User: Fold these one by one.
Assistant:
Number 1:
Amino acid sequence: MRKTLCDTLGIEHPIVGFTPSEHVAAAISRAGGLGVLGCVRFNDPDELDGVLDWMDANTDGKPYGVDVVMPAKVPTEGAAVDLEQLIPPEHREFVRRTLDELGVPELPEGEQKQDGVLGWLHSVARSHVDVALRHPVRLIANALGSPPVDVIERAHGHGLLVAALAGKAEHAVRHVDKGVDIVVAQGHEAGGHTGEIATMVLVPEIVDAVGDRVPVLAAGGIGSGRQVAAALALGASGAWMGSYWLTTTEYQQIPGNAATQQALLAAGSSDTVRTRIYTGKPARLLKTRWTDAWSAPGAPEPLPMPLQNVLVSEAHQRITRSADPTVVSMPVGQVVGRMNKVRPVADVMADLLAELDETIVKLSDLR
């Protein structure tokens, strides 16, 4: 199965790395894995097109993928102003008051508010797919399950594979029935959007359900070669890793990430919380004073997606701009407790592979 996945994706090692950084994604691909670039931060398709041009030139001809956020059902989307009008005033007041209490400064005069919500809209995600199809992308992954069938068919028509995340075995079956080529079994301990079932339980359930039809990648709580070996032992064809790349040297090239890395390096495996405050859907975040404020008595319930995105978009921009590690709003999994050093992607990959091989040898000695 390990060889099958590598042959299918055209990679050397059974490790797929999701990241919002093109620098990290390119480095993962150069190191023999498959770097998958998260596209949700790109509101402008032309900006994504330029970044994928950079990826084309900086992956040494090795394959890479992209990750979009696209619900299977097309939602009703009004103009941005319509979405703004749906935000309750009390929610806006809570965010304003909380930022003031946390000491998060206003944006500098003249700095444009970024409409960070757009990347979460279905129509924008479709534009991301349009851009990706103009590049030598190997894989399109969807963070919200299987994309619409017409998107899957378009990807297949261009020779691309489609991956989808699943938090239950029945979700995986639906993905494959719709034409998805690779299922990512993402456990409860993973960062970002995640379900209720832990990786150790979920992976064999999904492998049993669809593993005879498509490769299954294990995700959630993976941050060592031993854990990659465990994923293979559970029947997965490889590992999907996201959080572990957040403390790499290459990730520092995104402006404002120094405070985020400082917070991640200091965190333990119990310093995360699963909450709807980030997007409106349950997602695991680093536990900070910002997340604490939302769980305090009197805090409002988070709004559904995409309204919660609209509500906190400027807040996230201000938090990033403040460079305060105690208030960062960052998706990360429980594996954060292993993320104790800033290292280049190539070194991280080398250590993962060395420990993977050592673990497989040790296990073979037990026979």
Note: The first helix runs from residue 2 to 9.
Number 2:
Amino acid sequence: MADFLFEPHAPVSIPIARGGLFAVRRVYCVGRNYAEHIREMGNDERDPPFFFAKPADAVVVGGAPLPYPPQTQDLQHEIELVVAIGKDGADISVEDALDHVYGYAAGLDMTRRDIQASAKKAGRPWEMAKAFDYSAPIGTIEPASVIGHPTKGAISFSVNGAVRQTGDLAEQIWSVAESIAYLSGFVTLKAGDIIMTGTPAGVSAVVQGDVLEGSIEGVGTVRTKII
């Protein structure tokens, strides 16, 4: 067996409530899944779901700090329900989709909004706006066997204690089951994948020194500080 050229990178993992770790394979994100946010971004809320990705090592856990990323003057927050996939599947039906879910967490899809705007204008990919280092803080995963599959519940986000985003999971245009089914028509989902399911309205810029705190009723919290 050949030796590695260099030591392989440590696996990325998210803590599970009551013990254990969830090893992350891929990070998928649903774009524009709350009507109010779609309207604030100037887009058509009737569009079908679409997806973009972040690297697994963009995940930040345990309340660790988030370094302000380079090449942006407009770093914005997006609080989201995170779905942790625990069972492989392709072309999954909506009816079977929730059987593939291990659990849920609160997470942040951090976005370099100015880079995203420039990419949109030029018709270019979003990767450098979404898939940068430390761009996905995620809280503890709660198993679905304990909390069930939330379809409603308050989702909120604050900066330095001041509320910036509020909404309800019931306002999602595409449900968790529908998003899983649709995505699995494009790629095979595997245990270890996570899906970030979109954000409600109220996104805005954050700066160094800001403390970011998100909460989803019945699911959990996420917290980080911009350094």
Note: The radius of gyration is 17 Å.
Number 3:
Amino acid sequence: MSDTILLEVTDGLAHVTLNRPERLNAINPEAAERWRDIGREIAERDDIGAVLFDATGRAFCAGGDVREMGTTVGDGSAIAAHADVIHAGHVFFRESGKPIVAAVQGAVAGGGLGFMLCADVIVASEHASFASKYSDIGLTPDCGVSTLLPEAIGMRRALELTLTSRRLTASEALDWGLVTEVVSVDTGGADAVARRARAIAEAWLAGATGAFGQAKRLMLASRGRTFQENLDDEARTIGAAFGTPEAQARIAAFSSR
């Protein structure tokens, strides 16, 4: 089994770690296949209620491994096939119905933005940075960036980040809505980002886990549907949630206050 991306499942939490620190966690074909396979496993396992996504080393993800692309991956058709494998993994993660929190400890570039934006909540170190870099190497967005980036920060800012060499600081990324919160490493220690992200994941697992997953599904499914279709889905979903033991216990506790 490849160790380019690690998976550990404990007490309902799937911990996914990008693990190519010597290449700034850039994604090569081996890592792409591992990403797809982990995404499928998480989507199919009923014992997983939440996902914690992080990376080893000083960078979160530098996107595709451009050096390997240029020397061993092959021609354009091979690059497209490589992207298809990554994208299959993205679909599994996005459509799994499992809430995902990302702990971003360092630089994010290129397709790394797409990997990061597979998460629903993003906790970043104050020392993290964010850049597209596609324009610097004459390539176009992949890894879902053309969809996920404007979804997160709006089209005008997504175009600026993609078509220029602009690099965002963590505070700028927070202001733009690219990340959810920024953690001070200087006051919280080197593992402050990891601790905060894990606390979020554990709060999901301690709550009505199924409801979190359905809330995520409703939000994502709302795109491209009519308002009435979304309302009908909401009615069916909240009706189903109301009858679950998790909801009944929490409703009873709320009512007794």
Note: The radius of gyration is 19 Å.
